[in-house]
């Protein structure tokens, strides 16, 4: 098994189960045209996020890391008409593309995009009383993952679902001597999750068009 086969399976599954969607397709095209890195979640992963939000009956979502808004659209579509998704993006160019993509998808009334470093905007959300959120999706700079998880807990309640993307890093997560700050950030995150009594957590390895990686899934089981 190799990347070519993984990608072929992704294309096969997406072709059957995740039909082409004009707003999502255009979000990817616009992101590529603007020079954004091709690191959005795959269509299958986007559909998984949407299903998790729907299964959970989420009404409020916090997303840390917007990029071009592709995953934002998937998640926002899972919410009711009076739902709310707050998404945080540090890069002004990325935020500009994301705003256009979100508006094109007809979701500007549901999505609140905040520009700025997440570790600076998260305290503002807390001060505004915007939590607790029903679901938190973390897909931003990996060295800061432990800090993002700590904030996710502060803005959560019993029953909140927390998803953290890219926690396997092509298998490098098992290397304690890795010089990659992203790998070390993920290792600290997983150790922090394991030691946190307020959550039940697992992590799943994945392969597909985006290569070999995985995600962590946590359920908050007690109030802070």
From TrEMBL:
Pfam families (UniProt xref): Methyltransf_3
Entry-linked InterPro entries: Cation-dep_OMT (IPR050362), SAM-dependent_MTases_sf (IPR029063), SAM_O-MeTrfase (IPR002935)
Gene3D superfamilies cross-referenced by the UniProt entry: Vaccinia Virus protein VP39
GO biological process assignments: methylation
Nucleus found in the keyword field: no
Keyword Methyltransferase in annotation: yes
One of the record's GO molecular function terms: S-adenosylmethionine-dependent methyltransferase activity
Domain of life: Bacteria
Keywords: Methyltransferase, S-adenosyl-L-methionine, Transferase
Protein name: O-methyltransferase
């Amino acid at each position: 098994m190799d990347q070519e086969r993984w990608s072929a399976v992704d294309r096969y599954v997406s072709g059957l189960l995740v039909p082409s969607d004009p707003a999502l397709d255009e979000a990817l095209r616009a992101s590529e045209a603007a020079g954004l890195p091709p690191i959005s979640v795959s269509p299958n992963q986007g559909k998984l996020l949407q299903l998790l939000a729907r299964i959970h009956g989420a009404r409020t979502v916090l997303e840390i890391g917007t990029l071009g808004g592709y995953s934002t659209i998937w998640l926002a579509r899972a919410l009711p008409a009076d739902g709310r998704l707050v998404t945080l993006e540090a890069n002004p160019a990325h935020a500009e593309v994301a705003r256009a993509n979100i508006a094109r998808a007809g979701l500007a009334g549901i999505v609140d995009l905040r520009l700025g470093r997440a570790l600076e905007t998260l305290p503002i959300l807390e001060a505004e009383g915007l939590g607790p959120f029903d679901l938190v999706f973390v897909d931003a700079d990996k060295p800061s993952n432990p800090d993002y998880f700590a904030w996710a807990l502060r803005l959560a309640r019993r029953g909140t679902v927390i998803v953290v993307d890219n926690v396997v890093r092509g298998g490098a997560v098992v290397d304690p001597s890795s010089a990659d700050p992203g790998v070390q950030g993920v290792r600290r995150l997983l150790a922090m999750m394991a030691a946190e009594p307020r959550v039940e957590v697992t992590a799943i390895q994945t392969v597909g068009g985006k290569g070999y990686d995985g995600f962590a899934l946590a359920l908050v089981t007690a109030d802070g």
